[in-house]
Amino acid sequence: MLGLAVTTYAQQTSAQNDEEIVRLSPFSVQESADIGRYQAVEASSGTRVRMNLMDSTQSISVVTSEFLADTGSARVLDAVKYVAGVGASTQPNALDVMNVRGFRSYGTTIDGFNQFSMLNQDPIIIDRIEVVKGPNSVLAPQGLPGGVVNNVSKKPLFTNQGYASYQVGRWDANRAEIDGNYVVNDKLAVRVVGAVTDADDYGKGEYHQNITVMPMFTYRISPKTEFTAQLQIYNGSMLANNGNPVSLYAVNRSHVRLQEGLPRDFQFIGRGITRHQSGKNTRLFLTSQITDKLSMRIAGNWAYQNYRPNFFGTGDADTEVIQLDQITGEWSWDGVTRNDNPRYQFGGINEWNKLYYGNLQNDFVYEHTADTWKSQTVTGYAINYSGQSFRRIDHEPDGIWYDFTNNFTPPSGYTLQDKWFANSKSYTRSRQFYIVEVLNFFEDRLVLSGTLSYNHYFSGSTDNLTVASTQSSTEVWVPSGGVVYKLTPGITAYYGYTKQELDGPARPTSGIPHHTVPSEQHEVGVRLKLFDGKLYTTFAYFDIVQDNLVTWNFENFRQPPPNPPAPDIMSNRTAKGFEFEFAWAPTKNFSVIGSYTKYENRDADNMRYSNVAEEMGGIWGQYTFSETGPLRGLSIGLGANYVGERPSDVIGQFTQPPPGVDPVRIQPSFWIPSYTVVEASVNYRFNKNWKAQLVVNNLLDRDYIPGSFNRYIFVSTPINPKLTVRYEF
Predict the structure, then answer these.
(1) Residue 2 domain flag
(2) What is the 3-state secondary structure (H, E, C) of 642-661?
(3) Between 20 and 30 A from 607 (CA), which of 33, 278, 414, 596?
(4) What percent of the chain has pLDDT over 90?
(5) What pTM was computed for the model?
(6) What is the mean pLDDT of the chain?
(7) Where do the TonB-dependent receptor-like beta-barrel domain residues begin and end (predicted)?
(8) Which distant-in-sequence residues (6+ apart) come within 8 Å of 189 by Cβ?
(9) Ramachandran quadrant class, 399 (left: phi over 0; alpha: psi -120 to 50; beta: rest)
């Protein structure tokens, strides 16, 4: 649920009488642990209310809390990389950046509230992850066309339980966690989760430190009304590599490696230049069953972040050796030209000193059941606000170059400019009203659904250097709909049409008027739920089109260029392909999850996007030995994740050929090779209180490139065992 405020109506204590027991709230998800550790029956992120996955007209994947625990996931991406359509993107160590059906996502979404963050979300607050794929006008009217990775946070439970753990390891470890839940009485439950991390990362001098604490409580105002409040507080610092230079001789698929002469753990930024972010996030949820048929939810979110300076990298080498063919758009190296001691200019400083997010959602659900049909009507509204202050300062153009012989210490004479290169503030406001109607006929064999969403967007910005201000506003009506037909109780065919439409501000200097950026998706698929629900499988084909994207006008790259320049043009982006995923528990001791994705994400010229792998796959299995055998208490997990070849640097501009020759698109200068990474875990329970877990990432010690930015690449962490000891109470 995007609020999931009622997690406990199905967990009534024995002291409660029958009159106090009420039906499960439509805003609560019911777990079914008896069908397997990785199986989920329901999700609530699609329409803000609980829905059976077999009835959904849109692909929704659920990563359970058991899977998060079994894999020892340190990042959101560590878990969702096993979900079809979700893969790594540019930077592996920050921003929670990932691709969803090829569209790049930054930041985090928690309980349906989206916010930008330079730090990866600490997994201590996450109970489960729901991935809604494709445009969604209810969950994310201003989100990405590829979909939303929604982290459902932990909530208080009406049962006493908890744990404390400590983790040690060479990299990305040294971490303590606590999660304690206490039932004060039959009306009040409190819970506190927290984590402290002080970890070294693989790159020389790289590290991340973070303190996250989230106290919360749930109060049962009445047997049918609950109120939950959370306060998430965090303070983190990190030295995150912005990428190291690829070999100057890297071109197409040759010489794709770290620059010659640099050690694999090279880091050109020193410990004195770090990212630091702190913030507070308050979330409130009130749910009430007003009548037997009508329920209501109110959810609110207020977040404040402070993000201190971040060094943003270096420029190109003083002498590049690869050359661009202005006629073909291809890059090449003549095999002779060399630069054995390249030097680079320094970058500057980015700073977001204030970021605010405010959200309010109010939803109503009316459910009616007749003899031969039933209906669910969901309606609500949302109000959203965000604001930020941003500034940037560059280095002085003093001709100082860095040769990478030592880790970064500003050389003598290196100075920043005494004035801001950019200094601005901006804000957005939006209002949303929506209605969702779901009708079930013929004993739930036929499910029809439709959505209509009204959205009003307003944005404004002020340049603090010029005092110039801009404003824009847009109103859009967005329909969606679909049909589900159950051939048998365990075989479902579905079709869904979903849409969203974003505000596209005017760009007067580029000749672009104020416009909207619509995205729509057609999806068809088949779901199988066999062997009493122990096998759940989805086959899906999707076709996404995003229109009105501003792009270059190739006329401006002709020689000589037109005067005045031709206005930019509107173009589109498409993503289409197949997804397959499954979760299976053939026995109570064995659970396995897997996925495979094959698709295309292209622009109007059929060009691929940087850091988007168009073929991915993953599989993870966990076996727990019998509770009565000689290996009782032991479980073993093994997984593998495949990521296909990807174009590297930012592409898309046109060549500037000689007069009389048409410009063509510039191709990627190099391609990131495909890779397969294997990981494993061993868990051993000593008794009911003590447990140990050994997680080994990159088990085969593969050397691969997880991402790139321009001609800078990130290197993989070598084989990395991490041991966690946990005490449960």
Answers:
(1) no
(2) EECCEECCCCCCECCCCCCC
(3) 596
(4) 73
(5) 0.93
(6) 90
(7) 286-699
(8) 8, 156, 157, 158, 181, 182, 183, 217, 218
(9) left
Distance CA 160, CA 158 (A): 7
What was the pLDDT predicted at 344? 78
**pLDDT of 537 strictly over 90:** yes
Residues 614 and 600: their CA atoms lie apart, in Å, by: 6
Give the span between the Cα atoms of 280 and 235, in whole angstroms.
9
CA dist., res. 396 & res. 416, Å (int):
5
- Are the beta carbons of 344 and 402 closer than 8 angstroms? yes
Both tokens of residue 96? 């929670």
- One-letter amino acid at 182 equals Y
CA distance 4 to 294: 17
Helices (H) and strands (E) in the chain, counts: 2, 41
Residue whose structure tokens are 């065992």: 721
Residue 244 CB partners (closer than 8 Å, separation 6+): 258, 259, 262, 266, 267, 268, 712, 713, 714, 715
Q: How many domains does the chain have?
A: 1
Q: Which residues does 191 contact at the CB level (< 8 Å), separation at least 6?
A: 154, 155, 156, 157, 179, 180, 181, 182, 215, 216, 217
Q: How many residues does this entry show for the chain?
A: 729
Give the pLDDT mean for 60-73: 95
Q: Cβ contacts of residue 501 below 8 Å, gap of 6+?
A: 141, 455, 474, 476, 478, 516, 517, 518, 519
Whichever domain contains 184, its CATH number is 2.40.170.20
Q: Is residue 690 part of a domain?
A: yes
Rounded Cα distance, 52 and 60, in Å: 10
Termini Cα distance of the chain: 28
Residue-number span of the structural domain to which 170 is assigned: 9-728
**What residue type is assigned to position 217 of the chain?**
F
Over residues 473-496, mean pLDDT? 96
Rg (CA), the chain: 26
579 forms bridges with which residues in the sheet?
540, 597
